[in-house]
Design goal:
By secondary structure, the chain is mostly helical. The protein is built from 6 helices and 2 strands. About 55% of the residues lie in helices and about 5% in strands.
Length: about 120
């Protein structure tokens, strides 16, 4: 059981927040929350994560809105390696990595979600 108090909100760095907004504005996702969740899933699938500097993160979502059924919490808690922080802090770091990755892909054109799935299955 986590000894850390879970934050009521999660966020991203200002740079990643701008990328998240762009992913929605360009039509890659219908909602920013969908892009955030996908970013977390992508990072988990790749075993990747951003650094621990989340102090300057811009609040993006209320946890109760983003993760109503606590699926992100449960999956992240089960799969994370570093248990030295609150689970939703880990979610923030996963989202940071995933948003940056999705933004790089979007810079090259349309995001092909089937390719994302195929690439993670090959790992």
């Amino acid at each position: 059981m986590s000894e850390y108090q879970e934050p009521p909100q999660v966020g991203l760095s200002s740079a990643a927040h701008a990328k998240l907004s762009r992913l929605k504005d360009e039509g890659h996702f219908n909602e920013m929350s969908d892009a955030y969740r996908c970013s977390v899933a992508l990072a988990l699938a790749h075993g990747a994560i951003a650094g621990k500097d989340t102090k300057s993160n811009k609040t993006t979502f209320s946890v109760s809105t983003l993760d109503r059924d606590r699926t992100l919490f449960a999956i992240t808690k089960a799969l994370r390696l570093d248990e030295d922080e609150a689970v939703y802090r880990t979610v923030e770091r996963l989202a940071e990595w995933g948003v940056n990755e999705l933004s790089e892909i979007a810079d090259k054109g349309e995001i092909q979600f089937s390719d994302l799935l195929r690439n993670t299955r090959q790992k």
